[in-house]
């Protein structure tokens, strides 16, 4: 009955939304911010903990929202581990493009080490690309990323509006 | 054919035949017949309304209340005829008690601004309830912050009805000057006992305002029988166009209230030293009004009158009973709100899926429902939910559509297994 929804609700997405691996507040964290989607009431609080070398050691989140927003937050937390803030920002930008257009963004430079790590992470997030066909749901997928950027910039709140 | 005669097309139509009056209901969505269960957000429009608006623009249009020419006079007549229709709908004492506004939100803002700042005194209180739409919360918060008015909130019971114990307790100290309560909750479907609310408010020295945005769609409203002081509704939920709504208030109140907006239409004389206001209701209708929309609303009111509230209410009561039985029988479905008196709105949650996911899946089955907080976040918190899905019914809704919703919901739950 819902065959044409298989692109949006892929198995991996349903799995992350029903059994999130990172859906908790970190015991200690050095950056956090809340993301709100005022139109639908989705809310996610993102927590980030950095390692001494400046890379992201762990990310976690608390969310109330739909399957897409929870799965996206969980998948984000998964791919952030070991990334630098610069890589995380790049990833956020590319993921937003992916969610909006459904197409993998072209890599601008020849395979530098940064590009490779971001590229691999983006592959992991690819199942969320199906959201592009549902314009009212794109914000569900990008909400956690908005909150992440706000957290890395030292802010407290972000809106997907 | 003129605008007046157009609306008569629906005369004598039974409720079953009425569905054919709504052209959009023949549309398909994602290749499936549209099942529109979001009428509480905005209702679809019958041909009588569409035709009245088109006819106005094609054959009989000019600005109102100023032209000395034929077109303006005829358009003014049609516009004022809509005011008469609204007065008849609410059983207002006088047609001059009807003020045209954009929607319920603007009507409440008008009262909060004009009556709130012009008549209420700092230290007095406004009493609302937990089940208000944001449009009956935020204007009072603005008034509170700007004018030193206290804002009080009466509780809602677990069944989703107004808690009269809480309500009367908050009135006890005599500080409440205005009670502003919904006549029907857009989330719970609860129809509030407006007559009783007004009686208690008056005994405590307060005026009573009712937000009739939902109620007016489902039942006859008699502002005199309710003994209301203010009553507001919006046109687009009553099968009319967007951009037009009604504020009704007792003439004595409107006379006391200062203008809300200044400009053309609302004055009797202007000099650079001062201006004199036009008589009620024009004092509150600054600028060129929504002429075509008001005429469309007039047609919508006549359409509803012709089908008749008894038929509409009986049809929607049957739909709601069927929906509650079908949804209540589904595993994992929780219906929010169990008021005794209720209209055609059913909010629910599904255990395995968020309301947005439910709405997206239903949409692919051609079924349009609302999902989210329904502009009533405090009420969502009261019932411990982030959001609900909401199915709402209109005079054109069928039993088959409700069965389709229930069948689809069972499959949605399977999908999220």
Structure description:
The complex is a heterodimer of chains A (161) and B (417). Chain A is an alpha+beta fold. Chain A has a single domain, classed as Sufe protein. Chain: A. Chain A contains five helices and four strands; from the N terminus they run αβββααααβ. In chain A, β1 and β2 form a beta hairpin. Chain B has helices at 3-6, 15-18, 47-59, 70-90, 104-118, 138-147, 164-171, 194-203, 215-218, 223-226, 251-256, 291-307, 309-328, 355-364, 377-382, 399-415, and strands spanning 28-29, 32-33, 35-36, 98-101, 125-129, 150-154, 176-182, 207-211, 230-234, 245-249, 267-270, 275-277, 333-336, 345-350, 367-368, 370-372, 388-392. A seven-stranded mixed beta sheet of chain B has the order 4-10-9-8-7-5-6, sandwiched between helices. A four-stranded antiparallel beta sheet of chain B has the order 13-14-17-16, with helices on one face. In chain B, α3 packs antiparallel against α12 (291-307) and α5 (104-118) runs parallel beside α6. Chain B is globular and about 70 Å long. The chains are: A alpha+beta (161), B alpha/beta (417). Chain A binds chain B through residues 1-2, 4-5, 8-9, 14, 18, 39-43, 64-68, 134, 137, 140, and chain B through 30, 353-357, 360-361, 364-365, 371-373, 377, 380, 386-387, 408, 411-412, 415-416.
